[in-house]
Amino acid sequence: MKISKIILFAGALIYFAFGFLFFFNPDAITAMDGIILPTRSSANHIRAPLGGMEIGLGFVLVFFALRKETVIYGLIVLWGSIGFTSIARLYGILFDGAGDMSNWLSFGAEFAFAVGALVCYGLERRRLKRLSVLH
Fold first, then answer.
1. pLDDT tier, 1 (very low <50, low <70, confident <90, very high otherwise)
2. Which domain holds residue 70?
3. How many domains in the chain?
4. What is the rounded CA–CA span in Å between residue 20 and residue 52?
5. Which of 2, 8, 25, 122 has the most crowded CB, counting CB atoms within 10 A?
6. What is the DSSP letter of 70?
7. Threshold 0.85, pTM exceeds
8. How is 37-100 classified by DSSP, letter by letter?
């Protein structure tokens, strides 16, 4: 349980960090990848999903991590969100030619985090089954 909570809080911290960066300064963050946002509307289209949604995911992960009964649900949310992010990134690397070092490093980190969440999910499930047999 302890490692699962650590993974959830670490995931929340990462979502908060990136979310606040995109929320408050989408131009600076996108410019690092060579993306120029020509209008305030385009900046807002980045701010909402990459800022607001990531901050929201951070809050959801914290909420699930605070109660032992809901940790397993937080792991599902973390696995699904970061896991499919890594799949989308890998698709871009393989089919769009976006295989620069930045994308490979991001993919590796995202994929490792998703696998960690999935492993913790399996451990939590085993723990819950074992507890239900004992009671």
1. confident
2. 2-134
3. 1
4. 8
5. 8
6. T
7. yes
8. --SHHHHHHHIIIIIIHHHHHHHHHHHHHTSTTTHHHHHHHHHHHHHHHHHHHHHHHHHS---S
